[in-house]
Design a protein that fits this description.
The chain is of the alpha+beta class and about 400 residues long. Helix content is about 35%, strand content about 10%. The chain contains 14 helices and ten strands. Helix 1 runs antiparallel to helix 2 and helix 8 packs antiparallel against helix 9. This is Amidase domain-containing protein. Keywords: Signal. One of its GO terms (molecular function) is catalytic activity.
Length: about 400
């Protein structure tokens, strides 16, 4: 991914008067040209880490100092710099950003530096504002200003690491997890600090949307993803008590399946009980989200919304804390219901599960089989039929 470094060079070598004149001219040229295929027409492009004198540029203040300089010098000038990211990063189209899987986002943010956390957060919030009112996948949100400030803080930390001459390949060795700056939302049956837990709008836990109690702690697996750098932005919808192959409740309403609009049948279910998370991922509001699974609550909404998920082995992902009634991960005790990952790609599912677990002795995503590897000669496959008639199955399925 290419970024605009030609104007970073100006910061490093030109006198102040010439810097202001040239920077304004280049930025004006950039603003007057359309962005085509992720490239800024009219401005020289170089690859950030192929530029021969980039190391010396970093020593002089690099990204973080240049951002402060440009912001300070141009904010009140004839060229308005509405976004710091728009100045130093060649703006990728929002849809291009949101179409990336989480691993690609992580690489773009931490290694290529072709995407800022601020850009990603803004694109995410804009997308949610645009389509969530119709789909109702995300029911609770943190304050947008706080979220944008957290994203900018992530950028500053990354800039400081780069300014300290740490190679981009070693960024994650600086206590920076692979999810650093990536937005996630938590299923509304688990606790995330400073967000309410209503258990899918259950009156047993919450009387009304106007009478919400904020959680004072995050459940262990939520803490794990936060420790890996994720920014929790809100809560995703679930059925009451987190029970059901659907996603609707009296308090928050119904989550719609996005594919229903193509078929003009808004009655089509989003699945459940992790339907809010599945719809948010399918419609690019999020790259990742968690869910919980009792008898398909991760798997069936994934299938009904064309994404991926898996139900981890019971006990692999740490259980919810039992500090109070609202801390339960489900009405049924763990491990009958277990948290797990949801994503648009299998590799994201595996990597995200690693974040939820954290303990590489229990699970290591890097050790998983791939389609290129040789499978064992014999594989044991377990399956559940109609459970002695308790679960109705369409004719022909069990006989195939």
């Amino acid at each position: 991914m290419k970024i605009v470094l030609a104007f970073l060079v100006v910061l490093a070598v030109l006198p102040e008067k010439k810097f202001v004149e040239t920077s304004r001219r280049w930025i004006q040229t950039w603003q007057n040209n359309k962005l085509e295929n992720g490239s800024c027409t009219g401005i020289p492009l170089v690859n950030a880490f192929e530029f021969p004198d980039f190391a010396s540029l970093r020593k002089k203040g690099g990204f973080s100092r240049s951002r402060r300089m440009v912001s300070k010098r141009l904010a009140n000038g004839p060229v308005s710099a509405s976004s710091l990211s728009d100045l130093l990063f060649c703006s990728i189209d929002d849809d291009e950003i949101l179409s990336m899987d989480a691993i690609s986002l992580s690489k773009a943010i931490q290694i290529e530096r072709s995407l800022s956390c601020e850009q990603l957060m803004k694109a995410t919030l804009d997308r949610i504002d645009k389509i969530n009112p119709t789909l109702n996948a995300i029911i609770l949100m943190r304050d947008k200003r706080i979220l944008m400030n957290e994203a900018r803080s992530c950028d500053r930390v990354l800039d400081e690491i780069l300014d300290s001459n740490v190679s981009t390949e070693n960024v994650q060795k600086q206590n920076i997890g692979w999810l650093y700056g990536i937005p996630v939302a938590i299923k509304d049956v688990s606790n995330a600090k400073n967000l309410p837990t209503t258990m899918g709008g259950s009156p047993l836990y919450c009387k009304s949307p106007e009478n919400l109690t904020l959680a004072t702690f995050s459940d262990p697996y939520v803490e794990n993803m936060i420790e890996d750098g994720a920014i929790v932005i809100g809560k995703t919808n679930a059925p009451e008590g987190g029970l059901g192959s659907n996603t609707f409740n009296d308090m928050w309403g119904k989550t719609l399946n996005p594919y229903a609009f193509e078929a003009d049948q808004t009655s089509i279910s989003a699945g459940g009980s992790s339907g809010g998370a599945a719809v948010a991922i399918a419609t690019k509001m999020l790259a990742l989200a968690d869910g919980t699974d009792n008898m398909g609550s991760l798997r069936n909404p994934a299938g009904w919304n064309n994404i991926y998920s898996l139900r981890p082995t019971a006990g692999l992902v740490p259980a919810a804390q039992r500090k109070n009634r609202s801390a339960l991960a489900s009405i049924l005790p763990h491990p009958a219901s277990t948290p797990g990952p949801m994503a648009r790609t299998p590799r994201d599912c595996a990597r995200f599960l690693q974040s939820l677990v954290r303990d590489t002795k229990k699970f290591n995503a890097e050790s998983l089989w791939t389609t290129q590897e040789t499978l064992p000669e014999t594989i044991r496959i377990g399956w559940l039929g109609d459970w002695n008639g308790r679960v109705p199955i369409e004719d022909g399925i069990l006989s195939t």
